[in-house]
Amino acid sequence: MTWNGAFGPWPWLAVLLATGCASEAEPALSIVDAGMLDAGMLDAAITGADSAVDAGASPLSAGCGRASGSYGAGTTAGMVMHDGVMRTFRVHLPPSYASNTAHPLVLMLHGGGGSGRQFEEASSRMDPIADREGFVTVYPDGSGVLKTWNGGGCCGYAVQNDVDDVGFIGALLDHLDAELCIGRDRVYATGMSNGAIMSHRLACELTDRIAAIAPVAGTDMTATCAPSRPIPVLQIHGTDDGHVPWDGGEGCGPAGVAFTSVPDTMERWRTRNGCRATTGSYLEQGDGACSVYTGCEGGGDVILCSIEGGGHNWPGGDPPAGLVECPGNGGQSSTFIASEVIWSFFASYRNLNY
After folding, report:
1. Residues with Cβ < 8 Å from 154, sequence gap 6 or more?
2. Which of 16, 28, 194, 321 lies at 20 to 30 Å from 299 by C-alpha?
3. For helices 165-179 and 194-205, what crossing angle results, to 10°?
4. Domains contained in the chain, CATH given
5. Around 141, how many Cα atoms within 13 Å sit in the side-chain half-sphere?
6. What does the pLDDT look like over 7-49, one tens digit per residue?
7. pTM for the full model?
8. Over the stretch 179-232, which tens digit does the pLDDT of each residue have?
């Protein structure tokens, strides 16, 4: 496997990009073991958005019906060539995976300086939910020695070298379409920090393949965005995030860019999806309060979950380790379970224009 470059003329970026960074500790308990809300309980609590889900069968991927493939139950590492570079990723299949059933797929995009493995094993705690609910999780790796994503205005090696990460994700989806039985209208993207920034870009440029996005601790850093349809967005962000500040501007870490604010990010998606300026309650859970814009077109609901006092981390996930210290950065919520909320949100939507 070939690794390209480092951080060019900015060696201080090798410390760790503030937009994504943390390698985190192994959880002692799964979400279910800890007695947290499951998706069914969350569904009952959610009040605000109109579901765009359709009861019809999903369009099947080319891999449906394959007697055997490259991936078995549990997690398998994979590689795909794109732009002359071998790109790496991890695929997690639930125990209930069947080659004749269309399964939802969730792209999990790590933060800057992290990795797919770190995000899977020591951060998000998404796999136990995937095993319970029967969806596939995919953890791609960014590029560079300290891996980053080209989310437009951030971050690091990927932006400096104009890495085609949108093309990589498209090629990865092509590969998985051929190998697995996936519902093509139920492909979703979420991510942490730089990965969240990348998910915004995917919503803009891969709208035909992504049903909905759920960025965590990362805002919209695209210069232009013209999605081909309204796309549901669930933004999760801590009010005291010191790395990607709620009010925008440069954070306390070494990323060296001025981030789009959370309010401006939400206004962009409200406008793109044709929503009214009014909001209603969507969900309250622990430290988190979620509001949804009303009257959005085509099922393109736009939802903001603010984590009171929350910092630059994955709420309800493993405690971050290795994050660049940041005076004033908030804490990590243990009462708002981001992965559960995200899956409950995703499960309500399909790409009806697929």
Report:
1. 19, 112, 194, 197, 221, 255, 257, 259
2. 194
3. 80
4. 11-52+71-346 (3.40.50.1820)
5. 24
6. 232 323 333 333 343 333 222 222 223 333 455 556 656 655 5
7. 0.86
8. 999 999 999 999 999 999 999 999 999 999 999 999 999 999 999 999 999 999
